[in-house]
Specification:
The protein is mostly helical. The chain folds into 3 domains: about 210 residues, no CATH class; about 60 residues; about 110 residues, Serine Threonine Protein Phosphatase 5, Tetratricopeptide repeat. It is about 70% helix and about 0% strand. The protein has a two-stranded antiparallel sheet with strand order 1-2. Helix 2 runs antiparallel to helix 3, helix 6 runs parallel beside helix 8 and helix 16 runs antiparallel to helix 17.
């Protein structure tokens, strides 16, 4: 348990006591059983109304609910909670390392929330406040290990700021370093048990960062598939494993993970599960995707992934030959959601024109994303590249074939196909050239050829105005960071 620090105001003594009730509440929050966690905290507050750890932990209700459900009205109603909690935390002992840490944690939570709702200036202000408090706390209490987690996370986040927002980091004097940030998180995880504050979220965040930024997908997947990462009665772990299964081209495992998760209480409170569930079936070209996408659209009150959902539904109906429904879904893309996320921006552009993709390339695309490489190869192998009319289709054909060869272990052929795509498409709006450069960099880095890897990461960053720009650039920047920052 954490030490208890006290400060007396008059006859009132404020403490930072991470007691057994706080630990139980935190465990429930980190399993997404928010109502149960709130109930435990209410009892804890009744028993000890001056324990400021209750105040800090209560912020997880807003943090998790707003990040996952994205309800704008809920966001507006809860926004005052940050200042209310900070006012309470101001009663704490200024000479305790917990004084600045708890405030920094609240600022960080709300920075993430503001980013979620596209309020980037607000997010930058809160992130800076958190960053400064953590830096001061680190200088004042260098042996205080609980500072490491947040400080490492913020260094990582700042290190991957998109080019469009670099000026914000510059103005606020924020400096990031992906590798150093993740190393700090690892230090925290390795020196704390699962019963400690922050450890559970540190593990989940560490998995995301290593999977998406360090390209340690194989290592992360082995960990997620082990007994060390239980998903039973834990919705956050279910989300992490299911999300990464979807994005690691393991659709069947994602489906199984979400099926098991659907039996857990509170699963239905978070519609994003249905979106991920639908994506897994979509990549399998299974009609069950439509049911899950519809549940997501009916229950979700946010704006993210809405355009992408209508886009995926349109494509599925198109594959099925149901053009009436396909065209209806395409019309909805322009009317619903927003374009904060790369996937939604791509969907939005699709909704603005009347061209449908080559159906065989589309089928291959979905099967590759689902991890069904042999089936995708058979489809692509039956396509005559010379019969493809548009430059976009030719680019996609070569990129998709490169991806299949890459996954099937034919690295030299994959490199040749990626390079062909890169040469043809570096000035096109499609993302195939940039992704080809990125995939080539991954192959070279994994082979230990850092010189060629770095060259391809930089070449990827030199390609502009393409789909999925932010996501692809973020991975390329992380690659440059890994290979150059010591």
């Amino acid at each position: 348990m954490l030490p208890c620090c006290n400060r007396s105001i008059g006859r009132t003594t404020y403490t930072y006591q991470y007691n057994s009730e706080c630990a139980k509440a935190y465990e429930q929050y980190m399993s997404l059983h928010i109502s149960e966690a709130d109930a435990i905290l209410r009892q804890s507050i009744i028993r000890n109304p001056y324990n400021l750890m209750n105040t800090y932990l209560a912020d997880y209700d807003d943090y998790l609910s707003l990040l996952l459900n994205g309800d704008k009205k809920d966001y507006e109603q809860r926004s005052a909670h940050m200042d209310e909690r900070l006012d309470l935390l101001a009663n704490g002992d200024e000479h305790s390392p917990w004084y600045k840490l708890c405030k920094a944690g609240i600022y960080l939570h709300w920075a993430m929330i503001h980013m979620r709702f596209g309020e980037n200036m607000k997010a930058a202000f809160q992130l800076r406040r958190s960053y400064v408090l953590l830096k001061e706390n680190q200088e004042q209490f260098p042996g205080f290990q609980y500072n490491i987690f947040f400080y490492g996370l913020e260094r990582t986040v700042i290190g991957t700021v998109p080019d469009d927002y670099k000026w914000l980091a510059s103005i606020f004097g924020l400096k990031g370093n992906v590798r150093e940030g993740i190393e700090k998180i690892d230090v925290f995880i390795n020196t704390h048990s699962s019963d400690d504050l922050f450890q559970r979220e540190a593990v989940a965040i560490d998995c995301f960062l290593k999977f998406y930024l360090l390209y340690k997908q194989e290592d992360v997947w082995k960990y997620l598939s082990s007994a060390q990462f239980p998903t039973q009665n834990n919705l956050i772990n279910t989300f992490v494993k299911g999300n990464m299964a979807v994005n690691y081209r393991k659709a069947d495992i994602a489906i199984q993970t979400f099926k098991e998760g659907s039996a857990i209480n509170d699963f239905n409170k978070f519609p994003l599960f249905e979106y991920q569930f639908g994506c897994a079936y979509f990549f399998k070209m299974d009609a069950a995707c439509i049911d899950h996408f519809k549940v997501f659209l009916n229950k979700y009150q946010g704006k993210l992934y809405v355009k992408d959902t209508w886009y995926k539904m349109a494509l599925f109906y198109y594959i099925e030959g149901n053009m009436q429904q396909a065209n209806y879904c395409r019309e909805q893309i322009t009317k619903r959601g927003n374009t904060i996320m790369d996937a939604d921006r791509t969907a939005g552009r699709f909704g603005e024109h009347d061209r449908w993709p080559n159906i065989n390339l589309l089928r291959a695309h979905l099967l590759i994303d689902g991890g069904y490489y042999k089936q995708a190869y058979d489809i692509l192998n039956a396509v005559n590249e010379q019969s493809l009319q548009s430059i976009s289709d030719k680019l996609e054909y070569n990129f998709r074939m490169g991806r299949v060869c890459d996954e099937l272990g034919e690295k030299e052929r994959a490199l040749s196909l990626y390079q062909k795509t890169l040469n043809m498409g570096r000035n096109e709006r499609d993302y195939f050239a940039a992704r080809s450069a990125l995939q080539m960099a991954f192959i070279y880095e994994k082979a230990g050829d850092n010189k060629n890897a770095l060259a391809k990461y930089n070449e990827c960053l030199g390609i502009h105005h393409h789909d999925f720009q932010s996501a692809i650039d973020q991975q390329a920047k992380a690659g440059v960071n890994r290979l150059t920052v010591k």
